[in-house]
Amino acid sequence: MSPFEGKRILILGATSGIAQEVGRVFASLHCSIALAGRNRERLETVAADLRARGAQATLVLEADLADPASHAQLIESAARPYAGLDAAVLAYGVLGDQKKAEADPAAALEILNTNFTSAASLITLLVNRFESEGKGHLAVIGSVAGDRGRKSNYVYGASKGALDIFLQGVRHRLAGTGVCVTTVKPGFVDTPMTAHLPKTPMFASASTVAAGIVEAMEKGKGVVYLPFKWSLIMTIIRNIPEAIFHKLNI
Ligand SMILES: NC(=O)c1ccc[n+]([C@@H]2O[C@H](COP(=O)([O-])OP(=O)(O)OC[C@H]3O[C@@H](n4cnc5c(N)ncnc54)[C@H](OP(=O)(O)O)[C@@H]3O)[C@@H](O)[C@H]2O)c1
Fold first, then answer.
1. Ligand 1 environment, Cβ below 6 A
2. Which of 15, 26, 51, 110 lies 20 to 30 Å (CA to CA) from residue 98?
3. What is the pTM of this model?
4. How many Cβ atoms are within 10 Å of 140's Cβ, its own excluded?
5. What would the mean pLDDT of 73-86 be, rounded to a whole number?
6. Which residues contact 53 (CB under 8 A, 6 or more apart)?
7. For residues 30 and 6, is the Cβ–Cβ distance under 8 A?
């Protein structure tokens, strides 16, 4: 039996392609699920889908998650109706436009704020709450792109790399407290974020990645590459000497 059977879950960025599939796994475990995102209508559609798939209850919370001013209230609003939270999944993010971000610092900062700064705010509030209760599980979706800066997407990569280091430190701080923090590093996933890219065999489905996320949470893993082959691929990519790396067009 899954340790998440019947638990209270908060999904941040619940309309994301990956998050919707994560929600379906938790719905099949009869969880109560709070869904946060910035589009109420789409959140209501996701909530109805999750109830039809077995969710015990759903709650829709509309918020611009990139705005830290709303975060404390948002988490309180998610926890109050269920008298607490057992786990949270942070799934929102933007790919951004690398070329725009190279030309315009404001575009770069928007990517960094959405994917890292605002996420750091939510992570801080959530783990402090879990720490005070001596239990809780947080999974955060990073990316393999955070493992090495590349010319084609280093602003997005930097936001995910910063998230990776932040989460490493949080895990170090919380070791032995009963609070579990999982960093999820997917490779290419077939979702609206990658709709503009040609699909190759390197793409995984959102449902495969979602199953891997919940399995990693169930096993209490600190870091998980999804699918697993990306852990081998990124070990190679991280270790290519810079002189050779500069000759690669990736
Ligand atoms: N797809 C991939 O290949 C891939 C690979 C590695 C990692 N990831 C990561 O996986 C996570 C989920 O992405 P996805 O692939 O499922 O893409 P997606 O379907 O495009 O989902 C992105 C989600 O983030 C939400 N979002 C963005 N900014 C927001 C804000 N300020 N406030 C509230 N919600 C906001 C979007 O909401 P709206 O619908 O309202 O815009 C959307 O629901 C992201 O962190 C992404 O970086 C994806």
1. 13, 15-18, 37-39, 64-66, 91-94, 114, 141, 143, 186, 188-189, 191-194
2. 15
3. 0.98
4. 24
5. 98
6. 24, 27, 28
7. yes
